[in-house]
Write the structure tokens for this entry.
Amino acid sequence: MSEPVQTPQAIANAAFKPRIFSGIQPSGGLTLGNYLGALKRFVQKQDEGIQTIYCLVDMHAITTWQDPAKLRHATREGAAAFIAAGIDPARSILFNQSQVSAHVELGWIFNCVARMGWMSRMTQFKDKAGKNSENVSLGLYAYPALMAADILAYHATMVPVGDDQKQHLELTRDIAIKFNNDYGVDFFPVVEPLIEGAATRVMSLRDGTKKMSKSDPSDQSRINLTDDADVIAAKFRKAKTDPEPLPETAFGLKDRPEARNLVNIYAALADQSVDQVIADYAGKQFGTFKPALADLAVSKLGPIAAEMNRLMQDPGEIDRILGAGADRAEAIARPIVDQVYDITGMIRSRR
Ligand code: AMP
Ligand code: TRP
């Protein structure tokens, strides 16, 4: 747990109220990776009583082209997933990014703070652009500066994410530090990443070296939050493994990425340590382990899928929740971004 540790940065951030911000792109259906790496932790943080702000980042989603009707659907479905997983819109602030213009306003200012060299080193950009880097959107390149704006528009101090977002959070820290230095202020906190637990990076079921992703062309590679029990069981049954039984100790998983991934998923779903799972299944074949894993996943994900279905029957209610969340988000972000305009020398004479 990251709480009582007094790192130098935690002391420097003491002037800021503890506040959590995180986001998920509505660029398709959510996966087990999103659930274990993000949603499940979001709920834990809410239940610890810290102020939590969660956002469906639709402006980030359009950095790669989205069909408008599908984007709208995925945003509502994402909101339904948050609520079904345990986010209470009365206790957390839940909204979609485009309804609070402070994000893009601060994003632009951060485009002018971040350096080309920093952005060029972002591995997610390199992965997404691939060989096609001349032909991807400018937004995809600037994406991490907008992410920094999402977080810093709230003076958020902690950001729960999966391991793949670590580099973006380091960039967020660099942007905050450079802004503070350039303008001679102590305005932005230096955020702490919260990347904890057994499954901070859930891997593809087809390739234990690739992250499980909603954008993978193979549906067999991932568990979707909307998959039914039969589909979940079939996907785990067909998941790639090696022929060896499960090892006697966690160390034995070291060079077995697929086996390690399945054990990590089990541990995270069961709220157990990897050692405990290995102790229970040492020497067992995957023929035994996979059905147990499938049953566990169905018992955890089934109720979430059912609740998502119920919520999706009433899209108007979801839109109302997002609107109310946006009002509350705006009340925090607007004064912070207005101060940024003052700090940077923008005349705001209509206020
Ligand atoms: P994205 O789907 O890229 O918008 O990611 C939303 C959140 O889910 C971020 O906090 C990611 O780190 C997390 N996430 C996405 N895929 C995975 C995965 N395979 N394992 C763990 N966390 C993930
Ligand atoms: N970049 C994140 C992802 O792809 C999504 C995201 C956007 C985010 N803004 C954020 C996560 C702010 C945490 C905080 O997973």
Q: What stands out?
A: The chain has a mean pLDDT of 94. The chain is about 55% helix and 5% strand. The radius of gyration is 21 Å.
